[in-house]
Task: inverse folding
């Protein structure tokens, strides 16, 4: 069984539209397979997730490259209504957006995201035809208390509740230990692999068809960079990366993409 690798950049609250276009142009220039005749033949799927206001401009720029997708960083669960400041799945879909992140630890930490709202957002996105990257991961305190697996199990089971095996074709899970995000600390290759294997095993228990565990892509996130990507991406259960800081530098992001080839 082969899972196509996915290298995803989470730009967070960085890059105006003009800056985003400049960055995506630079990434394409670094990554010469884009737009050439052998466009993306053996490349991983490449995803960039800019802020909402930068999506349209980046999408227009990314369209010449068939392996390059654009995603949003959040979505609301309701179809429409009085939810000031929120964006619906249909609004994203209408633009041509293909992916959305749910449950990023910064949303959980700063914006009151819960396992339940992550699940609601995920289901709304799936219903609108978007693919979803659900983010899970333990905090440093939880890791020190040795409850990492219990936290991952709770987040994965809740996040995926009511989601069918068929819908799982459009789900990616990102394991992002919170203590590694933006800190320069990375999980060791072995620790990251162990967490990914735990999640894959959980999928085996949750879905009767082994196809779900076998086919679902699991990404590592948390200070992945040009220097450590190859080691992490070589692990059996790591199918790509969700990259923050290093995705803002075209050369680093391109190096990570190449490490996945
Ligand atoms: P980082 O962020 O690569 O800057 O640690 C990863 C993320 O938050 O998705």
Result:
């Amino acid at each position: 069984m082969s899972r196509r690798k996915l290298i995803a950049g989470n730009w967070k609250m960085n890059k105006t539209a003009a800056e985003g276009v400049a960055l995506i142009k630079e990434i394409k220039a670094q990554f010469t397979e884009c737009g050439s005749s052998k466009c993306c033949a053996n490349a991983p799927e490449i995803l960039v997730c800019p802020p909402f206001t930068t999506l349209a401009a980046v999408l227009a720029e990314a369209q010449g490259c068939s392996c390059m997708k654009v995603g949003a960083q959040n979505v609301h669960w309701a179809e429409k209504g009085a939810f000031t400041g929120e964006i619906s799945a249909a609004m994203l879909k209408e633009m041509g957006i293909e992916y959305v992140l749910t449950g990023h630890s910064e949303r959980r930490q700063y914006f009151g995201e819960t396992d339940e709202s992550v699940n609601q957002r995920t289901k709304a996105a799936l219903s609108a035809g978007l693919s979803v990257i659900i983010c899970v991961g333990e905090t440093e305190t939880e890791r020190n208390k040795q409850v990492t697996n219990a936290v991952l199990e709770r987040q994965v089971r809740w996040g995926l509740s009511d989601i069918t095996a068929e819908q799982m074709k459009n789900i990616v899970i990102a394991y992002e230990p919170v203590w590694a995000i933006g800190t320069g600390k990375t999980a060791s290759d072995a620790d990251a692999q162990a967490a990914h294997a735990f999640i894959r095993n959980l999928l085996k228990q949750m879905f009767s068809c082994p196809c779900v565990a076998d086919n679902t892509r699991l990404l590592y996130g948390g200070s992945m960079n040009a220097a450590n990507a190859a080691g992490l991406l070589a692990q059996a259960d790591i199918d790509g990366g969700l990259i923050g800081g290093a995705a803002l530098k075209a050369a680093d992001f391109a190096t990570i993409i190449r490490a996945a080839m």
The mean pLDDT is 94. The pocket of 2-phosphoglycolic acid is lined by residues 10, 176, 181-182, 221-224, 242-246 (CB under 6 Å). The chain is about 40% helix and 15% strand.
